[in-house]
Task: inverse folding
């Protein structure tokens, strides 16, 4: 609509918006929202499930910065990499991003489910059912689906062996739709071992993923300890046992005057020499304060000049400089050290120093690295990923990180579900049963919600190249007959027993996807107007 809109009769209305501002109203606004959101869901639909396809993301423009491509089937990575102009589509991108941050997986599921709900909602609007009636029905359906999900959740946390098997199955299921699917058993074990070392903590900073090109994915391994991508200073010992580690973030260049505009004038070279000698003495005093803590390893985030480095090495201290901020944060967390910037409380040495049994220099590929073994807080570990190219390593890192996030969520929540579309079909069955007990048009919206849930296993089967209609109907019959573990066997293209196949999913991931998709679809369904602000014009001076 322009500044002066027209009503249905053709009368010119008052000017509400600035020039070049636009307003879409009613059906046009709702249609625009649906088209954008459904397009986003269709974009990532082909990546869903263990047989999902990858997408190549190529930056626009020319130049070295735009030559890097990304090959992935991770929904959050795809959606946050593309430019989107449609406001409703942005809602789906946001829920996918939040799903990734909260539970680490289900990013494609949440976008596709929201898109399918809106597709069903569009059909209901065509039948002249009011959006508020649809939303009321969807809320009833969502609550029933959540109750159904909770009723089939399994909890084996009391049995450590059974719970470890559940974690292995969850990791394998998560990795089965990723690049690492061919080695999913191997990488599932790495992921479970790394997460169990956290001893219930959800701080993934203790797990460092290190990418080194060369070899194959099978050459990846779990290093029990921390690996820092830096080198030990010249002259310092290359191997040290029973380490007392002082971690610092302090300037170790000569203590120059840091006030801008300050000038020091002298009338001779002897005066310059006196200033340099004073700087050296000041630095020497600082080194002595550091040595008062009795460390045998000194790690600093900032640069260390030759003179203080020499003083430390002469006292037998291993010196590591320019450790990045993430690096010293992880070292402090793994070794139990505090990050110091001043050194005036040497009596607190036992509290602030970190410890590990061994620090040594190792070589991976062509790079020299530093390995910390036997850390005081024995929760740290490093996953060393090997691969033929940087693209493979980047996607392997994303896949492995998703598995770690899901495992941490599963350890906190304890509950697991059968996979292979079992939970979606069971929720759809319960929602259909609810629709039979509800009067009025809300029942039609509840039935539409059940159809949207059934679309997820349908899409998974279609992506595998199977007859989706036949498989999903067969699964529906099995679940209606009371089979508690039936699901889609995507390896054979038939209905299988998820318990025997070891296809399990984390309850929290599925629950978060269900709730987020429902809320996003409800939000978009509520839209009645879209107002586009006028662009700001640059004024000439």
Result:
């Amino acid at each position: 609509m322009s500044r002066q809109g027209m009503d249905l009769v053709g009368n010119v209305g008052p000017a509400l918006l600035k020039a070049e501002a636009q307003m879409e109203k009613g059906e046009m606004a709702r249609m625009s929202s649906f088209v954008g959101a459904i397009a986003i869901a269709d974009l990532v639909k082909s990546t869903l499930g263990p047989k999902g396809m990858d997408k190549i993301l190529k930056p626009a423009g020319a130049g070295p910065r735009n030559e890097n491509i990304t090959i992935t089937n991770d929904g959050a990575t795809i959606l946050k990499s593309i430019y989107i102009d449609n406001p409703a589509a942005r809602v789906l991108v946001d829920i996918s991003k939040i799903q990734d941050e909260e539970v680490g997986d289900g990013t494609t599921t949440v976008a596709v489910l929201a898109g399918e709900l809106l597709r069903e909602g569009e059909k209901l609007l065509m039948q002249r059912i009011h959006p508020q009636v649809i939303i009321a029905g969807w809320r009833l359906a969502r609550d029933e689906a959540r109750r159904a999900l909770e009723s089939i959740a399994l909890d084996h946390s009391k049995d450590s062996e059974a719970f470890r098997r559940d974690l292995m199955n969850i990791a394998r299921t998560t990795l089965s739709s990723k690049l690492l699917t061919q080695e999913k058993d191997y990488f599932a074990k790495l992921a479970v071992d790394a997460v169990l070392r956290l001893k219930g903590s959800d701080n993934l900073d203790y797990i460092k993923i290190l990418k080194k090109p060369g070899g194959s994915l099978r050459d990846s391994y779990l290093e029990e300890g921390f690996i820092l991508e830096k080198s030990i200073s010249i002259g310092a010992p290359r191997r040290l046992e029973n380490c007392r580690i002082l971690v610092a973030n302090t300037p170790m260049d000569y203590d120059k005057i840091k006030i801008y505009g300050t000038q020091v004038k002298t009338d001779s070279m002897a005066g310059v020499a006196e200033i340099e000698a004073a700087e050296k003495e000041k630095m020497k005093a600082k080194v002595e304060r550091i040595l008062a803590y009795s460390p045998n390893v000194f790690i600093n985030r900032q640069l260390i000049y030759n003179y203080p480095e020499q003083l430390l090495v002469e006292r037998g201290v291993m010196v590591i400089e320019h450790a990045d901020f993430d690096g010293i944060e992880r070292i402090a967390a793994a070794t139990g050290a505090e990050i110091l910037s001043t050194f005036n409380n040497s009596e607190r040495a036992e509290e602030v120093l970190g410890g590990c049994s061994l620090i040594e220099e190792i070589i991976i590929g062509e790079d020299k690295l530093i390995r910390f073994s036997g850390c005081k807080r024995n929760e740290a570990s490093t996953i060393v990923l090997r691969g033929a190219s940087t693209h493979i390593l980047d996607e392997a890192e994303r896949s492995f990180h998703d598995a770690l996030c899901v495992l941490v969520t599963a350890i906190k929540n304890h509950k697991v579900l059968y996979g292979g579309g079992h939970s979606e079909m069971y929720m759809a069955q319960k929602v259909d049963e609810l629709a039979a007990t509800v009067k009025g048009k809300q029942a039609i919206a509840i039935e539409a919600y059940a159809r949207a849930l059934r679309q997820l296993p349908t899409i998974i089967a279609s992506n595998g190249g199977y007859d989706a209609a036949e498989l999903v109907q067969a699964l529906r019959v099995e679940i209606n007959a009371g089979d508690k573990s039936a699901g889609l066997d995507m390896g054979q293209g038939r209905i299988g027993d998820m318990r025997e196949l070891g296809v399990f999913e984390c309850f929290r991931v599925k629950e978060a996807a269900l709730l987020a998709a429902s809320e996003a679809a409800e939000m978009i369904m509520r839209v009645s107007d879209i107002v586009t602000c006028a662009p700001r014009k640059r004024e000439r001076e």
